[in-house]
Amino acid sequence: MSTSDRPRARESGIRIGEYDTGPNNAITDVDGVRVGQVTLIEGVEPQQIAEGPVRTGVTAILPPGTRAGTM
Considering the domain boundaries, does residue 58 fall inside one? Predict the structure, then answer.
C-alpha cells in the first residue's frame, strides 16, 4: 500500500492540535514564518572515506520577527 492510498489522519476525523489548518496545510501558512533550505552536493561516485562525495542539506524555520543571521 502506498502512502497515497492511505487516508490522512484529518480525513479520518483525527484532529491534532487546537488550530485549524491553513490553505496550504503548511508551516508557511503561519503569518511571518519564513522557511529556507539549501542542499550541498559535491563530488562524484565512488564513495571515498573522508573524501566524499558529499550529499547534505539543512532547513531553517524562522519565527515571525526573526532576522536570518541573528540567531
Answer: yes
